[in-house]
């Protein structure tokens, strides 16, 4: 009997091996869903970036398909890494993948597939000294395991920006007023920030910090105009345009730069030099922690935390792929959050700028998330400080994103990081 069984065993073992291997052969794609079935949306972006950077493998970004899902050729290393990082995925056949691609390509559906080809090289414009507040972009990039370099005034003025594809502006005050935090002038972090800025300005031949910050802002504008991508949040948005508009005009009072501001500032602003905003006025009171009339301030918004939400607009995936990419999400109603610059009043947004999200019940009306071209490049401004901390205060602990792995507000940041990886094609906006 034993002799009769052995030949059967020898035949059965190869059949088992074939079944195991054929399961992988038939399963030719990995689908990373980005709808409510995804356990960790934020780390899913990190997986996408890791695949693009480490393996130089193209992937499909399925716009408006299950929350903006990703699809990549099957690789066991990819699947293992997703399991390690807690990212949900589905193994699908080549036939199923073809069906999905056909579905999103159908002319009667608002979906499309965009090829992601190469991971962008990322830089964050941020001071080297420690500040008593965190930055949402660096928080989420660290959590998602997306690498980035830190650059600041020295690197920008020395011409380093062309080495990068994507630049984030930390919560910077480009007017040279140190955030208008004069009430904190005796705090060690404020003194260090001021000392560092004045030292750098002197090293580069500038008589005061506002002149250096203007030069930095213009270098960044050259980077974007030449084809770079810039993303900014909070007061790095309106102070950036204010600095450009005020070229040649002193808008800074003596406690910040040693001499008085021009009393006719608001008659001399040049809006032709700005990226996103026009017709605004500078707020010249040095003790008021507001820089311009662009920001929709809390007393004007008349919203409580429980009623503060903004809505993402829907765009045509086939005709407007850029804003469609930038608004991919599993939710369209997003929790609001405050910042030194919270939101942008609609009347100050240039007509060519695309508004991608707004708060409809915020008093005078406001945009929260805007995007446009500038020269050969692009920029996106996102109002507020921290999408998962409604009113983040100086000195508070950073947000623990382990508690918010499916944050819809943080997803908007990560959309911007992957956007430069998209294969260039003729765009409608």
Account of the protein in words:
- The chain has 429 residues and is of the alpha+beta class.
- It has two domains: 2-116, UreE, C-terminal domain (Alpha-Beta Plaits, 2-Layer Sandwich), CATH 3.30.70; 122-421, Class I glutamine amidotransferase (GATase) domain (Rossmann fold, 3-Layer(aba) Sandwich), CATH 3.40.50.
- Helix content is 34%, strand content 16%.
- The protein has helices spanning 2-26, 41-55, 76-85, 94-105, 136-144, 153-157, 188-203, 209-225, 235-245, 254-257, 298-301, 321-326, 408-418, and strands spanning 29-32, 59-63, 69-73, 90-92, 112-116, 122-125, 149-151, 166-169, 229-233, 309-312, 333-335, 344-345, 354-359, 366-374, 377-382.
- Strands 6, 7, 8, 9, 10, 11, 12, 13, 14 and 15 form a ten-stranded mixed sheet that branches. Strands 4-1-3-2-5 form a five-stranded antiparallel sheet, with helices on both faces.
- Helix 2 runs antiparallel to helix 3 (76-85), helix 2 (41-55) packs across helix 5 and helix 2 (41-55) runs parallel beside helix 13.
- The protein is globular, with a radius of gyration of 25 Å.
- Residues 1-26 have low confidence and may be disordered.
- It comes from Rhabdobacter roseus.
- This is Asparagine synthetase B.
Quick structural overview:
This is Asparagine synthetase B. The model is unreliable at 1-26 (pLDDT under 50). This protein has 13 helices and 15 strands.
Secondary structure category: alpha+beta
* Overall morphology: globular
- Euclidean distance between termini CA atoms: 76 Å
Helix content: 25-40%
Largest sheet composition: 10 strands, mixed
Cα gyration radius (Å): 25 Å
| CATH superfamily membership of the largest domain | Class I glutamine amidotransferase (GATase) domain
Low-confidence stretches: 1-26
Count of DSSP H/I helices: 13
Total number of strands: 15
Mean pLDDT: 90
CATH class of the largest domain: Alpha Beta
- Give the number of domains: 2
Any guess at the CATH architecture of the largest domain? Answer: 3-Layer(aba) Sandwich
**Percentage of β-strand residues:** 15-25%
